[in-house]
Amino acid sequence: YYRVNAGAYTSVQGALASGNATSGTWSFNLTYTAVAGDVISYYVIAQDINGNITSNPSTGLLAATVNTIITDPTTPASWTVMNVLSGTYTVGAAGNYPTLTAAANAYNTNCLGGAVIFSLIDPTYSAGETFPIVFQNNTDASATNTLTIMPAAATAVSITGSNASTIIKLNGADYITIDGVNTGGSTLSISNTNTGTTSAI
What we know:
The protein has a four-stranded parallel β-sheet with strand order 10-11-14-17, covered by helices on one side. It has one helix spanning about 100-110, and strands spanning about 1-5, 15-20, 25, 40, 45, 55, 60-65, 70, 75-80, 85-90, 110-120, 125, 135, 145-150, 155-160, 170, 175-180, 185-190. The protein is elongated. Helix content is about 5%, strand content about 40%.
């Protein structure tokens, strides 16, 4: 059984893909047009020839048969449909993302389909930012699916804030480049105005 967001559950019968009924691999096909941000909740239920019923997850399940569900599991399994990032995205008031914080959040919560560039189009990044700006490990990151943060051509960019730890944090993130000079002659400066002994850029 699966549902999209808070919709009604739809049942899909499994097909034995390989092996046997007790230790084989089962396949379930969901008929659904993927929309980024949707949450798909699901549980798998089975009944043996003696009428015994179980599901995974099972807490809260009440069923007369696998086809007659009285109460669905309290906390079904779930996944979220995510966007795929690939290519160049502008970051700034008139850009794809209004702040570098918003761009970082997109990087942290979406899939990567290729190399990504965050092109900084505004001269300053301070107001509206949440410091530290954290880039998490993206499981799709690789030598091919890289992230480059750089100023747009002919734009002098400054990222300035005050934080006791740091301004930009790469939290286990790999394959990320912060490029300070664009081929168009632009520059990038990053400053932490916090005077604490633990502060860093």
